[in-house]
Amino acid sequence: MSSRVRLALVTTFIVLVVVFFALYLHDLDWSVLGDLTFTWWLVVIASLVSLAFRFWGVMIWALILRDLGAPRLPRFPVLADIYAKAWMGRYIPGTVAWIGGKIYLASQQGIAKSRLAVSSLLEAGMQIVASMFVALLILGLDPRLDVISTTMKAFMVGLALAMLLILVPPVFNRATRFAFRLIKRESALAEVRTNATATIRSFVLYSIGTVLAGSSYFFLTKAMYPQINAADDFWFIVGAFTLAGALGMATPLLPSGIGVRDGVQLVLLSLIMPSEFALAITVASRLWSALVDLLFLGTAVLGRKLFARHDTVPDPVAPPAG
Fold this sequence. Notes:
Layout: H1 3-26, H2 40-67, E1 72-74, H3 76-87, H4 96-107, H5 113-139, H6 150-167, H7 169-184, H8 196-224, H9 230-249, H10 260-269, H11 275-307, E2 312-314
Antiparallel strand pairs: 1-2
């Protein structure tokens, strides 16, 4: 690929991110935020926990790549920089920009694009599956979830099971081999196969990360609505935001799940607080999440400049890909 094409791709990606990020903020109903007050130290805690979740995602991606047999990986600050830049692609409608950006940027570090594609698809799918699993586990026995119809609950369970089935290595590998032959017109390489280690470990780690991310929303909600308490509402809020995020990620045509995510959050938060507070917190959480994304990007870019003197580090033991 020529330097002009690379420059055009990067420039287009940046412009699209800026445009859709601006539209994302423009769509916020700023009027509902006027009467909100914040406990700022709780907002700081929420932001640090949410930032930690994003770096947790970088670690999971790196482990998936190693489990898939990547012989050399960039150092963690380099991976974090790549991940954070691609993460901003979530504001562009669809999932292509997020996944494609990660593949393109990481391939510049010498990682095979086919392996990057498999790792990115596995990671994106496992985020949804793990989030759905944790949310349903938390909320399934909570009587306050009766507001959601049995049909909707059955749909969510079916969606989680269907996605988990797709991510099982034999099924996932057959699908990727078929896609590879369709696109490349040749047999798939070993690097386009996932394995049980990558699948199980990513599921466990993302399940833990989901609780970490959900707890950040508890602190944020507590900062705006002090009447909630950890004993009664912590797990409900973790489950509510996790479920909303999972359904939002499963809606690929909207940036960051706008609409679907907000609707689920509003319905569930209204069960534990007045509807006007639920609406204000739903809008505020969107703004806060966008600001944390910018913080993640800035921290990752700065970290690469400060700590990544050499881009790559050899991996002396490459686990088998199959």
